[in-house]
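FAQ: What does the model actually see?

It sees only this:
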Amino acid sequence: MMYKLFSVAPKLTGIFLFAALLCCVSVIFAHREWVNPIIGLSGLVLGFLLLACVSVTTVFLKMRGISFDYWFLFLFGFLPITAMVGFMVQSKDLPMINDVTTNLYHPPAIEREHFGSFDEKLVPIIKKSYSDLESLQMTTDLMGLKKIKKVLSKYGFEVLDASSEVVLFYKSFTTAFMRFTDHMVVRCEISGNQVVIDMRSKSVYGQSDFGVNAGRIRQWHTKIKEVL
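And it is asked to produce this:
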């Protein structure tokens, strides 16, 4: 029994330290512009899985009667399990898409790398999952348009195209933790004193945005409504 204790404990400790180091390095690398965030995320997930394995192994040894003073391995190994399960439960009802718009049949578009055209296959998915996302239609004057431009410019949007009928605003967002890049376009179509505002937010990496793009559109809907 003592032989098992002294042969297993150092290995578990080594795996634990390696996994913790892998998580830290993955997050650091994800913050470098020359590294694809998917690589950083993959390393983080692998580190979490290793920590989870250490936690499960520690509990198994305890059940087999092998007790030792390394219960911190279970504690820190259990945290990623809790985080992953919580994240999966929270996102279980979210669709696996990374491109969301308020106008499904005439979405805003720009000539920008990674933006591309809108996939029509997403139309029924967005209708079902994000039925609350609609074009903003309002009556306003020139002062109202200036207010919209002012608030968008204040938060870093740039004007890509402007005419008497259409104004396109663009901004690139970067997530705080893993540094994923998202593109967002706001289109204002003007006809007399009628303005129709459409938005589109798309992630550069991954197949799912876990609801981030839809949440961003809702946020800007609210901001523009508050201005007017």
